[in-house]
Every structure is written in C-alpha cells, then in structure tokens.
Target: Amino acid ABC transporter ATP-binding protein
Amino acid sequence: MNLLEMRHIRKSFDGVEVLKDISLTVKEGEVLGIIGPSGSGKSTLLRCATKLETYDAGEVTYGGSVGLVFQNFNLFPHFSVLKNIMDAPIRVQKRNRAEVKQEAEELLEKMGLKDKANAYPCQLSGGQQQRVSIARALAMKPDILFFDEPTSALDPELTGEILKVIRQLAQEKMTMVIVTHEMDFAKHVSDHIIFMEEGYIALEGSPEEVFESSNARIQEFLGRFS
Ligand code: ADP
Ligand code: MG
Model:
C-alpha cells in the first residue's frame, strides 16, 4: 500500500519555480531518504507533502495520517515535556486524557527520557529536546513520519542519539521520509533515496544505486562530505 503519493507537484515562490514536476511514492514500512544541496527544495517538498505549504500544480494523497519532526524542535517553551507530548492527542484528536498520559509516559521511556516528564524544554539539551519532539510526533500515532534535517541544529556529539532513535523506528517498520545531511545514516537507514538538485529529482534509486552512481553531480555532492 502507498502511504504517500506525490504526482507532478510544482511550486513557485515569487515567480521562481523551486519544485519542478516532483513525483514520488512511499510504501507502507518504507524509509525514503532525501538528500541534496541547500536550496534544492527539500524542505519545500516536505512542506508540500505534509500540506504545511500549498502547491501550484499536482496532487498529494496519503493512505494515513502524518507526523512531522522539524530541524529546530519547535517545542512549546511554556509547556512541560509531558504536556508537549499530550497536548495534540487531547486537544486535536480529542482522546482520553488518562490513556494519552500513559502512552506519553511510555514514549518518554522509549526515548530514554522517563525522568524528564516534568522538565521544561529550556532545561534539556538539544538532543533531548529533539527526542521529545519525536515522542510528540509519535503520540499522534502517525502512519507516516517526516523528518526535516532532524540533527542539523545539534552539536555533533548529540547527533548520534537522534539517529539511533530513527534507526530503531525503521527497525519497527515505521514509514518515514527523512531529509538529512548525514550521508552514512541516509545510506544505511533508507530503502530508497532521492537526490534533489535545483527543484528536480536529479537521481533516485536504492542507496547502492545512488551512492555508487557515476553521475557527476551526485559524486560532486557526496565529495563535499568526505
Ligand atoms: P532546502 O530545504 O533543500 O535547503 P528549501 O526548500 O528550503 O531548500 O528552499 C528551496 C528554494 O525555495 C530556495 O531558493 C529558498 O530560498 C526558496 N524558498 C523556500 N521557502 C520560501 C518562502 N517561504 N518564500 C520564498 N522563497 C522560499
Ligand atoms: Mg531545508
């Protein structure tokens, strides 16, 4: 089953086309990695896929509900960790508070943050804040989870703990779309990779096909990381 289909998506800002006829599908249980230079349209693609942004042409369809994890965590600063996780399931999904609380506590335990339930975001490290925002996204029980550079705001030593959590979700067969600059991680966690350039899908395929491609553009891009 396809959980996400984008067909012929186009998007312009101020007359400049930043997504040029993007089509892709994500199947249930699949991890799609999206790589490419800064400004190539990766965030816009995710924002159109999750309908945070309108698009000018094309179609997006889902086979389920979506969750999104941002680069800058976007936690509510005046809410405790627990309340950050419980707020949307209770307020948006109208679910039972006691049940949501129990699930939130389980998610915190899974993220290794059981003792931080009553802390406020400012009392946490960046890595801890990002784990809370992953727990918050999971609390909505999404069928597909989108990550936009989940580690790029973190100090290098905190990146690993986030990548580990995402790897674990992949092992549990969570369907995910992950924009990342962590090339080794993208290669190992993804079932399929898209390389974006200037608003196009310049290359796509299995991790082996993309990373071992003789395509000059991808080799030039990958060369920046080695
Ligand atoms: P990436 O995530 O790959 O770095 P983005 O999707 O953020 O790329 O940006 C793609 C292009 O669209 C860039 O040229 C960027 O400046 C432009 N862009 C993105 N969002 C907006 C916006 N809200 N208004 C105007 N231009 C935008
Ligand atoms: Mg971006």
